[in-house]
Amino acid sequence: MITLPNECYCMIFNNLRSNYNSLLSCSLVNRHWCRIVIPILWNDPKNHFKDIRLIKVFLLTLNDEERTLLIPFKLTFPNHPKPLFEYTSYITCVNKDLYSGIRIWLRSNGYKTEYELVETAIQCSLIAMSCELVRILNI
To answer: One Pfam match, by short name (predicted)?
Structure first.
């Protein structure tokens, strides 16, 4: 079996960048394709920041130090194993929808008190998780 160099796969999959469902399907073909496609899928997830599943993934990737920032708020973190990939490391841009996604996640978990304070704490934890997010948000 002849395989293409990774650069060729990258060029092909980058042409599918605007077709999220096709890229997602390609990521399920095999491990090799998955390793190439995942960074492309997660490069610019701005259309998905309002999806609470994405916020759950972000929260799952927080380390113990970053989670410690959130202890005073008695948040219930998703009870799943850490993701296979460090998805957040592939993100190159963030928009205000991330904050909307955090609000939606908080509401879906029944969190009501000190809403702005909790939202800010989660944002700070997510920012602490990735220096790239700090640079992008100019904070």
So the answer is: F-box-like
Q: For the whole model, what pTM was predicted?
A: 0.71
Distances (CA, A) of 22 to 57, 68, 88, 115: 21, 38, 21, 37
pLDDT tens digits for range 85-104: 888 778 777 777 777 888 88
What is the secondary structure of 23-82 as a DSSP string? HHHHHTT-HHHHHHHHHHHHH--GGGTT-HHHHHHHHHT--HHHHHTTGGGT-----SPP
Domain residue spans of the chain: 6-43, 46-137
Q: Is the Cα dihedral 66, 137, 103, 91 positive or negative?
A: negative
Of 57, 59, 62, residue with least CA distance to 41:
57
